[in-house]
Amino acid sequence: MSNVILIGFMGCGKSTVGIRLSYKLRRVVEDTDKLIEKKADVLIKEIFATKGESAFREMETEILKDLQLSKEEKIISTGGGLPMRKENHTLLKKLGTVVYLRISPENVWERLKNDTTRPLLQCEDPLSKIKELLAMRAPVYEEAADIIFDVDGKDMEEVLSGLLIKLEESGCITGGKEDENTGN
Ligand code: S3P
């Protein structure tokens, strides 16, 4: 399948980039966190609180399996911890081109310091937690990715234009540079 799948740490911009890419490429965008919330009819932070993280991780794998059933080419943004399960790598690869949006811990902190929706960062020292998690996850993201794209120091327009070039070079999309509004 030739979906574009966005992976990376919390706050790297997967959801926003996903929405922007969906306009640009005229593809439906799906977000694994949103699909889980819809399926379970409850917020992610409540899933963590009532059922625990491992139940949430099971749901992520189930959603990846559900996504295999669609024949439509989509943009898929994923939760930051989803690639940590090895079996999810195979499911991601089957879905299409996996793009890792790479970000520094300092930038994550800058973006998420006032966020209350990420259960894993509701702790005493979120910056240390970000550093610790990112150090563990970075090699796994790299392993899962077909394309690695650095977002630090770039605004959204730079991220989008750079990413479209990489996606075209990889043969995953064609004609991605048309104007967002007019299609020209
Ligand atoms: C998580 C990231 C979140 C969400 C959940 C767990 C993680 O998604 O799936 O809170 O383990 O990194 P975002 O990456 O979209 O914030």
Keywords:
alpha/beta; 184 residues; five-stranded parallel sheet; binds shikimate-3-phosphate; 8 helices; 12% strand; Rossmann fold
Structural summary, described in words:
The protein is α/β, with parallel strands linked by helices and 184 residues long. 51% of the residues lie in helices and 12% in strands. It has a single domain, classed as 3-Layer(aba) Sandwich (Rossmann fold), CATH 3.40.50.300. It has helices spanning 14-25, 32-40, 44-50, 53-67, 86-95, 105-112, 126-144, 156-169, and strands at 3-7, 29-31, 75-77, 96-102, 147-150. The radius of gyration is 16 Å and the shape is globular. Bound molecules: shikimate-3-phosphate. Shikimate-3-phosphate is lined by residues 10, 14-15, 33, 44, 79-81, 118-120.
Task: Give the number of DSSP strands.
Answer: 5
Bound molecules: shikimate-3-phosphate
What spatial order of strands do you see in the largest sheet?
A: 2-3-1-4-5
Instruction: Please give the domain count.
Output: 1
Low-confidence stretches: 177-184
Helix content percent band: 40-55%
Number of helices: 8
